[in-house]
C-alpha cells in the first residue's frame, strides 16, 4: 500500500515503466526516408541514348583512283568524269604532278608507264573514273579506289604461272600492309608482313621470287595503316615457251557465300573456276551455269568441298563448252560459307579473268578499251553489257564515244533470275548503268584480239563523315 493509502498492483507499475512516448524526431526519422523513396519511384528517368552512331553521308569533295603500272598489252590509260562538270584533275606519277583537263563522259588519254594516281576535288570528285586498257590483245582494268581489305583469287608463284602485286600509297604519309596466302592452308612469310610503303611510292612484289610455291594461291591484302591501292598482274607461260599471257586480276572486297560471275568469252580453250575458303570450317560450294533466263547444275557436277584456309581449282572446260552453245553467260556459286572466286579462261594467245560482280544500287560506270591510231582498223573491239537484277525493275544503259558524245541510250526491264544483254555500238569508250527499282550485278565483256571482262561497281559520289563520341570504357 502507498503512503497515500492507494493500493498499486505490481504488474501495472511494470507496464508503466516499459512504455515510451514516440516523439516527433522519431517519426520524421522513419517517415522521411520512406517518403523520399516513394517520390523517387514516381520520378520518370530520362531515356538513355547510345552515343555510337554510324558515319553520315555528305557531299564528296575529294576522291582518288589509282591505276597500276603499264604492262605489255595494257599500255594505255584514260580518265573521265560522270557528274556533268568539266575541269582539271590532278595526275600524280610518283612525286610528279600535272593537271589534266577532263570533260563529262569523254575519255581523256593520260601518258605514263608507272602507277598513276588521279585526284578529283570539289565538283570533279563525284563520279571520277580511270582505266588501264589495251587492244592488242584486248585487256582492261577499271582503276580502283584504295581499300583496307582486298582479295585476289587464283594467283601463282611458280615459273609457268606467276603474279606481280603492286602496292601504291597515294598519300604523303607511310602506309603498312600485311599479305597472307591461301594454298592448302593459310600462311604468310616475313617479307609479306608489315610491308611499309613510303608516301607517294609503289612497292612491287613478284610472288615467284618472294614466296615460290607450286600450289594455286589466293592473296589477302590487309592495310593496317594509311591507304593503299592494290594491283595484281597475272602471268602465264608454257614451260620453255616464249609467249607470256598477261591479264589484270580485279579485286574482290569480301568473301561471300553467294557469288555471281558474269562474262564468259567464247572460243576454244580451257576454263577453270578458282575458289578459296578463308573460314575455319569446311565449306561445300554448289556451282551453277547461268544463261539469259535460268541457271542449272551441269550434269555430273557435284558440290565442291573446300578445306579451311585453302584454294582449289575446278575444271569447267567440258561443262561450259556445251553450255556456251546454249547461251551461257556466267557462273553462280552457292556455298555453305563465305568464299572468294575467279574464273580463268585460257584462249589461243590470251587469258581472261572473271571475278564476282559487286552489287550496284545507284549508278555504275567504266571506261572501255578503244582502238586508236594508225592500226585502229586492225584492232577494233566489240562490247556488250551483262546485267542480272535482284528484283523486277528497269535499268538504263548509256554509252559514249571517246569525245563524250552519246551513241546509245537504252532502258530494259529486269526480272529476278534473268540476265539482260545489251550490245554496245562500235567505238564505245564509256558505259554508264543506272538501275531503278532494283539492284543489279553486271560486267562488260570486250572482245577483239582476245577478250577481257570488266566488272561494274558502284560509283563513288558521296563521302562519309565519322560521328565523334565521348570516350567509353
Brief summary of the model shown:
The protein is 8% helix and 50% strand.
Question: How would you portray this structure in words?
Answer:
The structure is a single chain. With 473 residues, the chain is mainly beta. The protein has a domain at 256-357: Hypothetical Protein Tm1070, Chain: A. Helix content is 8%, strand content 50%. It contains four helices and 36 strands. Strands 19, 20, 21, 22, 23, 24, 25 and 26 form an eight-stranded antiparallel β-sheet that branches. It is globular, with a radius of gyration of 33 Å. The relative contact order is 0.15. The model is unreliable at 1-5 and 13-17 (pLDDT under 50).
What are the key terms here?
473 residues; mainly beta; Hypothetical Protein Tm1070, Chain: A; five-stranded antiparallel β-sheet; 4 helices; 8% helix; disordered N terminus
CATH architecture of the domain at 256-357: Sandwich
Assembly type of the chains comes to single chain
CATH superfamily of the domain at 256-357: TM1070-like
Q: Helix share of residues? A: under 10%
* CATH topology-level name of the domain at 256-357: Hypothetical Protein Tm1070, Chain: A
> How many H/I helices?
4
CATH class of the domain at 256-357: Mainly Beta
Give me the count of strands. Answer: 36
As residue ranges, the low-confidence spans are 1-5, 13-17
Terminal CA distance reads 80 Å
Beta-strand fraction estimate: over 45%
Amino acid at each position: 500500500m502507498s503512503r497515500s493509502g492507494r493500493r498499486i498492483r505490481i504488474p501495472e507499475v511494470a507496464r508503466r515503466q516499459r512504455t515510451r512516448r514516440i516523439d516527433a524526431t522519431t517519426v520524421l526519422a522513419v517517415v522521411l526516408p520512406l517518403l523520399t523513396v516513394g517520390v523517387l519511384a514516381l520520378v520518370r528517368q530520362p531515356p538513355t541514348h547510345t552515343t555510337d552512331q554510324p558515319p553520315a553521308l555528305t557531299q564528296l569533295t575529294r576522291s582518288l583512283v589509282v591505276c597500276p603500272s603499264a604492262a605489255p598489252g595494257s599500255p594505255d590509260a584514260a580518265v573521265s568524269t560522270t557528274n556533268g562538270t568539266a575541269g582539271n584533275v590532278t595526275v600524280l606519277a610518283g612525286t610528279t604532278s600535272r593537271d589534266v583537263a577532263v570533260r563529262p563522259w569523254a575519255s581523256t588519254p593520260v601518258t605514263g608507264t608507272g602507277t598513276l594516281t588521279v585526284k578529283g576535288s570539289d565538283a570533279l570528285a563525284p563520279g571520277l573514273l580511270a582505266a588501264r586498257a589495251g587492244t592488242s590483245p584486248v585487256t582492261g582494268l577499271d582503276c580502283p579506289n584504295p581499300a583496307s581489305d582486298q582479295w585476289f583469287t587464283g594467283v601463282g608463284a611458280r615459273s609457268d604461272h606467276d603474279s606481280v602485286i603492286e602496292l601504291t600509297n597515294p598519300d604523303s604519309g607511310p602506309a603498312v600492309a600485311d599479305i597472307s596466302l591461301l594454298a592448302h592452308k593459310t600462311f604468310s612469310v616475313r617479307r609479306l608482313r608489315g610491308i611499309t610503303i613510303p608516301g607517294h611510292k609503289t612497292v612491287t612484289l613478284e610472288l615467284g621470287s618472294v614466296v615460290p610455291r607450286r600450289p594455286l594461291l589466293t592473296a589477302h591484302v590487309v592495310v593496317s595503316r594509311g591507304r593503299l591501292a592494290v594491283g595484281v598482274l597475272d602471268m602465264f607461260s608454257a614451260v620453255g615457251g616464249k609467249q607470256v599471257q598477261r591479264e589484270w586480276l580485279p579485286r574482290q572486297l569480301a568473301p561471300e557465300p553467294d557469288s555471281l560471275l558474269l562474262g564468259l568469252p567464247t572460243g576454244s580453250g580451257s576454263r577453270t573456276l578458282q575458289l578459296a575458303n578463308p573460314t575455319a570450317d569446311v565449306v561445300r560450294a554448289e556451282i551453277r551455269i547461268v544463261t539469259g533466263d535460268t541457271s542449272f547444275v551441269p550434269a555430273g557436277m557435284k558440290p565442291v568441298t573446300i578445306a579451311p584456309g585453302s584454294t582449289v581449282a575446278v575444271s569447267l572446260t567440258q561443262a561450259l563448252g556445251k553450255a556456251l552453245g546454249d547461251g551461257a553467260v556466267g557462273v553462280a556459286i552457292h556455298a555453305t560459307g563465305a568464299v572468294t572466286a575467279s574464273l580463268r579462261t585460257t584462249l589461243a594467245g590470251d587469258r581472261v579473268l572473271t571475278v564476282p560482280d559487286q552489287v550496284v544500287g545507284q549508278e555504275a560506270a567504266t571506261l572501255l578499251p578503244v582502238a586508236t591510231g594508225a592500226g585502229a582498223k586492225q584492232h577494233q573491239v566489240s562490247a556488250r553489257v551483262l546485267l542480272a537484277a535482284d528484283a523486277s525493275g528497269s535499268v538504263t544503259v548509256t554509252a559514249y564515244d571517246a569525245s563524250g558524245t552519246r551513241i546509245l541510250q537504252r532502258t530494259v526491264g529486269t526480272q529476278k533470275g534473268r540476265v539482260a544483254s545489251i550490245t554496245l555500238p562500235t567505238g564505245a569508250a564509256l558505259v554508264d548503268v543506272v538501275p531503278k527499282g532494283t539492284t543489279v550485278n553486271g560486267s562488260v565483256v570486250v572482245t577483239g584480239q582476245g577478250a577481257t571482262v570488266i566488272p561494274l561497281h558502284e560509283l563513288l559520289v558521296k563521302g562519309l563523315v565519322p560521328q565523334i563520341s565521348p570516350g567509353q570504357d
